[in-house]
């Protein structure tokens, strides 16, 4: 579906298609434990968030140079633009790269080679959101924020991702406070596999302006009421929810009920190379499986710009 839209929940490392993974492996002399792209695609089958994350981190081994990150972002923007994405707020996971000996500067400046001119080359405006891995320590997150300081002109905000259960938002209170003082925008994954209380905590303790996933808010009517009242955007990822078994089948996805409840919902792709599709594919999938009409799809597209970090004049131009 090519209706103009903003993509607000997209992990750049999750856009690594098997073909590019093998091309980068060859360029960098990295050996992948898969015979070919077919066999790798077979491995793109998961039971839950953790089994997905294991493969996601394993494949990052092919990303080594600025050119690799620039090529990764370029491949994503080409696919996104073809599906109507006019603006993309892109997550990256620096700790996963720093742990492999790839410095912050290589990641950020590599991505920026592409993102810094994406409006001219792809007709897509972009923002970068640096995520902390919640299954790493709070000290590691603080070190990561420190390492990002020379690059803050490239980074709009911070996020929180990776294994959710057992790693509540409050663990990252200090780093979110420090980031706010630096003028960074704040989002966090919450209520994907974790309980509704994590959503409340992300709002109250971390001061997030937008909740990534937030699916499980539906278990708590008072929380839903609050999210509606405060107009907190949720970045839903329907195909991801099916692949990671947050919902059994797409036809049972709560998106229509969430929209009926008055929640500010957006539809996004999360890790499109792994979960079966980019932003437009997610729009197509919910239209078909959930019977969403034209008006509802337009509402989702409108919401995506409203929920973005674009300034009003930029928002008008992107739509
Ligand atoms: C992620 Cl689907 C999802 N959830 C949490 N962390 C992630 N990192 C990349 N994709
Ligand atoms: Zn995500």
Automatic annotation (TrEMBL):
Residue ranges of the TM segments: none
Binding-site positions, substrate: 271
Gene Ontology MF term list: adenine deaminase activity; zinc ion binding
Highest taxon of the lineage: Bacteria
Reaction(s) catalysed by this chain's protein: adenine + H2O + H(+) = hypoxanthine + NH4(+)
Record's GO cellular component terms: cytosol
E.C. number: 3.5.4.2
GO annotation terms (biological process): adenine catabolic process; hypoxanthine salvage; nucleotide metabolic process
Binding-site positions, Zn(2+): 9, 11, 189, 270
Catalytic residues, chain numbering: 192 (proton donor)
Sites annotated Important for catalytic activity: 213
NCBIfam families cross-referenced by the UniProt entry: aden_deam, PRK09358.1-6
Function: Catalyzes the hydrolytic deamination of adenine to hypoxanthine. Plays an important role in the purine salvage pathway and in nitrogen catabolism.
Protein name in the entry: Adenine deaminase
Protein's organism: Streptomyces populi
């Amino acid at each position: 579906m090519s209706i103009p839209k903003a993509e607000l929940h997209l992990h750049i490392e999750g856009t690594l298609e098997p073909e590019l993974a093998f091309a980068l492996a060859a360029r960098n002399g990295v050996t992948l434990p898969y015979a070919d792209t077919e066999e790798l695609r077979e491995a793109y089958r998961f039971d839950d968030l953790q089994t997905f994350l294991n493969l996601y981190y394993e494949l990052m081994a092919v990303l080594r140079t600025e050119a690799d990150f620039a090529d990764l972002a370029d491949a994503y923007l080409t696919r996104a633009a073809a599906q109507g994405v006019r603006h993309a707020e892109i997550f990256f996971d620096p700790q996963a790269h720093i742990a492999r000996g790839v410095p912050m500067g290589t990641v950020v400046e590599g991505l920026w080679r592409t993102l810094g001119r994406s409006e001219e080359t792809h007709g897509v405006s972009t923002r970068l959101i640096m995520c902390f891995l919640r299954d790493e320590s709070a000290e590691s997150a603080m070190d990561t924020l420190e390492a990002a300081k020379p690059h803050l002109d490239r980074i709009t905000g911070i996020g929180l991702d990776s294994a959710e259960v057992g790693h509540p938002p409050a663990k990252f209170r200090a780093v979110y406070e420090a980031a706010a003082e630096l003028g960074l925008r704040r989002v966090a994954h919450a209520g994907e596999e974790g309980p509704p209380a994590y959503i409340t905590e992300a709002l109250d303790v971390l001061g997030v302006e937008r909740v990534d996933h937030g699916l499980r808010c539906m278990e708590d009517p008072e929380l839903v009421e609050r999210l509606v009242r405060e107009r907190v955007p949720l970045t839903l990822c329907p195909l991801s929810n099916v692949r990671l078994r947050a919902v059994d089948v797409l036809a049972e996805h709560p998106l229509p009920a969430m929209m009926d409840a008055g929640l500010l919902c957006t539809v996004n792709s999360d890790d499109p190379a792994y979960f079966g599709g980019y932003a437009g594919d997610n729009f197509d999938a919910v239209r078909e499986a959930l019977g969403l009409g034209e008006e509802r799809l337009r509402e989702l597209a409108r919401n995506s710009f409203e929920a973005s970090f674009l300034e009003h004049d930029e928002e008008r131009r992107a739509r």
